[in-house]
Amino acid sequence: MQVRAVHKTVRISPRKMRLVVDSLRGKSVEQALVSLTVMPKRAGLPVEKTLKSALANAVNNAKLERDNLFIASMTVTGGQALKRFRPSTRGRVHPYKKRTSHLEIVLEEKGGQKIQSAK
Question: Could you tell me if 63 and 43 are in contact, meaning their C-beta atoms sit under 8 angstroms apart?
């Protein structure tokens, strides 16, 4: 059974967040939480909060065992960008974007039996 958690509009660019997410994909939940506590990246905090939310959804709502869970997929997509301008010389402006991210974490059980439909 798959359980998911989503964190939208995180004020970190998707490129920086993918650095953290790529190192955690496929690990067990416990290994990922330990890795996130020592990771020196700013994106580690929202990833950790979302992972803990997905873990709570799995344990409390889906009644899955905490020890059997692993990260099935973690995806980071770009959210909407805040458009800002910086004043420049001779009355000009230079535009830039403050990028945001959407993070989705899907957890799955290791020994989970798949229910096949009878045909």
Answer: no
State the Cα–Cα distance between residues 106 and 74, nearest whole angstrom: 6
**Encoding tokens for residue 78?**
């770009």
**What are the boundaries of each domain within the chain?**
2-109
pLDDT per residue over 41-66, tens digit each?
Answer: 999 999 999 999 999 999 999 999 99
Q: Output the CA angle 65-69-70, nearest 5 degrees.
A: 175
* The pair of three-digit structure tokens given for residue 31, joined into one six-digit string: 């290994």
Q: pTM for the whole thing?
A: 0.86
Class of domain 2-109: alpha beta
Interatomic CA distance for residues 6 and 10, integer angstroms: 11
